[in-house]
Amino acid sequence: MELHIQVPYSIETAKSLKAGDYVYLTGTIYTARDAAHKRMYETLAAGEQLPLDIKGNVIYYMGPSPAREGRPIGSAGPTTASRMDKYAPQLLDLGLAGMIGKGKRTQQVKEAIVRNGAVYFAAVGGAGALLSKSIVKSDVIAYDDLGTEAIRKLEVVDFPAVVVIDAEGNNLYETAVAEYCKE
Questions:
Q1: Mean pLDDT for each 10-residue chunk of the chain (183 residues)?
Q2: CA-CA distance, 88 to 111, in Å (whole number)?
């Protein structure tokens, strides 16, 4: 199914999405990679507030290349999601509604997705230049010292993604392989 979703979104919206759905996200999403996730983890461990309200929001695992003249951002392809798996369950338990990346997730992340009614989306790896065309605004909001790994607030219009793990725990990577092996 092909859907247009406004971000941030409600848990009800997340629960309506099914593994295999093609979605186009419009609104606000945030970027964070390894170093930013580590810093958020340390911030929470110190009893401090995160630099963004993650409740109902989506984090895109991405570190952009420099923007070309006249563009808000450079190439913006997804990073391998498993590198954030150590930190994702805690963020999901705090209300993170979705993540965008590429690749498989651990069982602990899958359980946290189900427990919290969230979603894991995949963006097409190797298509960063094409994906950047859906990003109309980009502002660093935290951890500027991390360079490309700083947390950015992105405004997106029809950002394409595929639901890989839905709120019920259905995993497209597993069901697609099973379906392929039937033939």
A1: 94 96 98 97 97 96 89 92 97 98 97 98 90 96 95 98 98 76 63
A2: 11
